[in-house]
Automatic annotation (TrEMBL):
<dbReference type="GO" id="GO:0005737">
    <property type="term" value="C:cytoplasm"/>
</dbReference>
<feature type="active site">
    <location>
        <position position="110"/>
    </location>
</feature>
<dbReference type="GO" id="GO:0047938">
    <property type="term" value="F:glucose-6-phosphate 1-epimerase activity"/>
</dbReference>
<dbReference type="InterPro" id="IPR014718">
    <property type="entry name" value="GH-type_carb-bd"/>
</dbReference>
<dbReference type="InterPro" id="IPR011013">
    <property type="entry name" value="Gal_mutarotase_sf_dom"/>
</dbReference>
<comment type="similarity">
    <text>Belongs to the glucose-6-phosphate 1-epimerase family.</text>
</comment>
<dbReference type="Pfam" id="PF01263">
    <property type="entry name" value="Aldose_epim"/>
</dbReference>
<dbReference type="GO" id="GO:0005975">
    <property type="term" value="P:carbohydrate metabolic process"/>
</dbReference>
<feature type="binding site">
    <location>
        <position position="27"/>
    </location>
    <ligand>
        <name>substrate</name>
    </ligand>
</feature>
<keyword id="KW-0413">Isomerase</keyword>
<feature type="binding site">
    <location>
        <position position="32"/>
    </location>
    <ligand>
        <name>substrate</name>
    </ligand>
</feature>
<feature type="active site">
    <location>
        <position position="214"/>
    </location>
</feature>
<feature type="binding site">
    <location>
        <position position="9"/>
    </location>
    <ligand>
        <name>substrate</name>
    </ligand>
</feature>
<dbReference type="GO" id="GO:0030246">
    <property type="term" value="F:carbohydrate binding"/>
</dbReference>
<dbReference type="InterPro" id="IPR025532">
    <property type="entry name" value="G6P_1-epimerase"/>
</dbReference>
<protein>
    <recommendedName>
        <fullName>glucose-6-phosphate 1-epimerase</fullName>
        <ecNumber>5.1.3.15</ecNumber>
    </recommendedName>
</protein>
<dbReference type="InterPro" id="IPR008183">
    <property type="entry name" value="Aldose_1/G6P_1-epimerase"/>
</dbReference>
Length: 256
């Protein structure tokens, strides 16, 4: 068992109010290391009739949090499961400062995906996008025109990424479809062998069976004035996929 304040490795950690080391807080901020409460009376969200089961959670800063990051907020999270197993996470963050101060933050749904073999996986939807390469001092590059494949460590922030990205797992004949709203960027990460060996909570060869594709707001922090609320959403679904002469059959996954 992992005891707070140690983060879990896996699942969908929520990076707030800081992504990575972009600030003076602990890596990825404190929200992922906190116990959230059930939100019994959340402000209404538009109801999707396909959603049969959901839970509303809320996080407010503790006194210790306020010492580290002196801003009052309400962070509401709805976790919803659709009939076909589709998962959606909707984050709503409100500035509740009473002294008139705005605040700014970076954010990510640090989503871990289980894959059969990282060298057989391709990511479609980020072709020709600009990205910041965290392994090259956040230098800006432009992705080539082909689907992304993995042959070494990858740690990139794709900017102004499309609202739909597909992770195609050739061996599993399965495609994960990631949809996002309110989150302009998409982080793609795999630590590969050297970094995997250096991480205490990560098996030496586990990098072969995982990939992070993370809807995020990293390049441009989000700023909220008192009383303002931001909403960001992540949707995940898994669809069967098959290859036909090397091409993905359900291209409609991305464009449909």
């Amino acid at each position: 068992a992992i005891k707070p304040p140690k983060p879990f490795r896996g699942g969908i950690p929520i990076c707030f109010p800081q992504f990575g080391t972009q600030g003076n807080l602990e890596q990825h901020g404190f929200a992922r290391n906190r116990l959230w409460a059930i939100d019994d009376n959340p402000p209404p969200l538009p109801v999707n009739p396909a959603i049969k089961a959901f839970v509303d959670l809320i996080l407010k800063p503790s006194e210790d949090d306020l010492k580290m990051w002196p801003h009052s907020f309400e962070f509401r999270l709805r976790i919803a499961l659709g009939a076909g197993g589709d998962l959606s996470l909707t984050s709503r963050i409100r500035n509740t400062n009473t002294d008139g101060r705005p605040f700014s933050y970076t954010f990510a749904f640090h989503t871990y995906f289980s894959v059969s073999d990282i060298s057989e996986v391709r990511v479609e939807g980020l072709e020709t996008m600009d990205y910041l390469d965290n392994m090259k001092g956040k230098e800006r590059f432009t992705e080539q025109g082909d689907a992304i494949v993995f042959e070494s460590e990858v740690d990139k922030v794709y900017l102004a990424a499309p609202s739909k990205v597909a992770i195609i797992d050739h061996d599993m004949r399965r495609t994960f479809v990631v949809t996002k709203e309110g989150l302009p960027d998409a982080v793609v990460w795999n630590p590969w062998d050297k970094k995997a060996k250096a991480m205490q909570d990560f098996g030496d060869s586990e990098y072969k069976h995982m990939l992070c594709v993370e809807p995020a707001a990293v390049e441009k922090p989000i700023t909220l004035k008192p009383g303002e609320e931001w909403k960001g959403r992540l949707g995940l679904s898994a669809v069967p996929s098959s290859y036909c002469s090397g091409q993905l059959d359900p291209l409609k996954v991305l464009h449909g």
